[in-house]
């Protein structure tokens, strides 16, 4: 185990789990019927990471981020990424001001990135130069403007959205930036029953409102507690086996992985799995992660950290099914529907 599990740790984990259950219910009153999406987004925040939400317009991604900001007690900002967006529009800039006595001095005007929860809407519409403005912020939680390092909000999270269909006039995110996202969250169409519930809940005179459950300080405490959650040796070995089995040049890789994968996940993927399996266990009221958590988090953690080769793309191979197949082979357990 990574750490001993004493009575005090158990009590602390159970207390956070109770608050998380309340937070989850509050979010799901605003973002109806997408329990897995809510779980993955909360997992990203619990781990202190960032999430990439991929889905068509109109599926409630903006509503989800707005509800998260309220429930988790975070100061949030939103940036609509466009082709003409410049790095200074995100980071801020220095302006020359003249005082009443005639003296002049530079003053820094903060950009919208100085917040605790940033929604980067349609991130792939901005140019690579502007996308790169987020790289340092996402990794180091600070930005450098005019030669000076400036700390961002604490905590700091980015939830970026991307339209998977309309690719005209977009710039694919580079692998280095994709790797900064802890999880990729696929937002699909709701089923019929869920869509009916959405209609009834959102087209009347009043709508349910989210309410604050956490403060920023409580979220930071929960993030620190998550790192103390014990992880069994068998789960650690499964995480390592899975990540290494997804690398085409690794001896552990299957014939299908060697034939279809162009590049595989690096060590950051193993770190992300180690954190997210703990978060999923905590969100589901358990005191330690299991094999089930490894299988469930494999696709969200690995799908944006791997790439199919040209032949596999030409055949129409699915990266998602490859990851699920590999996870099942490594753990001996199929992914839940």
From TrEMBL:
<keyword id="KW-0547">Nucleotide-binding</keyword>
<dbReference type="GO" id="GO:0005524">
    <property type="term" value="F:ATP binding"/>
</dbReference>
<feature type="domain" description="ATPase AAA-3">
    <location>
        <begin position="50"/>
        <end position="183"/>
    </location>
</feature>
<dbReference type="InterPro" id="IPR041628">
    <property type="entry name" value="ChlI/MoxR_AAA_lid"/>
</dbReference>
<protein>
    <submittedName>
        <fullName>MoxR-like ATPase</fullName>
    </submittedName>
</protein>
<dbReference type="Pfam" id="PF17863">
    <property type="entry name" value="AAA_lid_2"/>
</dbReference>
<dbReference type="GO" id="GO:0016887">
    <property type="term" value="F:ATP hydrolysis activity"/>
</dbReference>
<keyword id="KW-0067">ATP-binding</keyword>
<dbReference type="InterPro" id="IPR027417">
    <property type="entry name" value="P-loop_NTPase"/>
</dbReference>
<feature type="domain" description="ChlI/MoxR AAA lid">
    <location>
        <begin position="255"/>
        <end position="317"/>
    </location>
</feature>
<dbReference type="InterPro" id="IPR050764">
    <property type="entry name" value="CbbQ/NirQ/NorQ/GpvN"/>
</dbReference>
<comment type="similarity">
    <text>Belongs to the MoxR family.</text>
</comment>
<dbReference type="Pfam" id="PF07726">
    <property type="entry name" value="AAA_3"/>
</dbReference>
<dbReference type="InterPro" id="IPR011703">
    <property type="entry name" value="ATPase_AAA-3"/>
</dbReference>
């Amino acid at each position: 185990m990574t750490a001993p599990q004493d009575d005090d740790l158990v009590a602390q984990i159970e207390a956070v789990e109770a608050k998380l259950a309340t937070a989850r219910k509050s979010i799901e009153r605003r973002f109806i019927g997408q329990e897995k999406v809510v779980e993955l987004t909360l997992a990203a925040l619990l781990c202190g990471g960032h999430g990439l939400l991929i889905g068509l317009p109109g599926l409630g991604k903006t509503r989800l981020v707005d509800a998260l900001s309220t429930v988790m007690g975070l100061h949030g900002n939103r940036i609509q990424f466009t082709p003409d967006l410049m790095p200074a529009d995100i980071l801020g800039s220095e302006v020359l001001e003249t005082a009443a006595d005639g003296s002049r001095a530079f003053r820094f005007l903060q950009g919208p990135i100085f917040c605790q929860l940033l929604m980067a809407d349609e991130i792939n519409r901005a140019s690579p130069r502007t996308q790169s403005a987020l790289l340092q912020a996402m990794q180091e939680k600070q930005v450098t403007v005019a030669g000076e390092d400036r700390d961002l909000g604490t905590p700091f999270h980015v939830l970026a959205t991307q339209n998977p269909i309309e690719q005209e006039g977009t710039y694919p995110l580079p692998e280095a930036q994709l790797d900064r996202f802890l999880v990729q969250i696929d937002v699909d169409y709701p089923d019929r029953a869920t869509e009916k519930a959405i209609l009834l809940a959102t087209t009347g005179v009043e709508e349910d409102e989210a309410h604050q459950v956490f403060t920023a300080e409580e979220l930071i405490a929960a993030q620190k507690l998550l790192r103390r959650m014990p992880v069994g040796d068998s789960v650690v070995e499964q995480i390592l086996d899975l990540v290494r089995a997804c690398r085409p040049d690794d001896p552990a890789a299957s014939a299908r992985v060697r034939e279809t994968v162009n590049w595989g996940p690096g060590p950051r993927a193993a770190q992300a799995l180690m954190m997210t399996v703990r978060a999923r266990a905590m969100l589901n009221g358990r005191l330690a992660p299991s094999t089930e958590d490894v299988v469930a988090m494999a696709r969200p953690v690995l799908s944006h950290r791997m790439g199919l080769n040209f032949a596999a793309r030409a055949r129409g191979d699915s990266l998602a099914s490859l990851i699920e197949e590999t996870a099942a082979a490594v753990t001996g357990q199929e992914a839940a529907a």
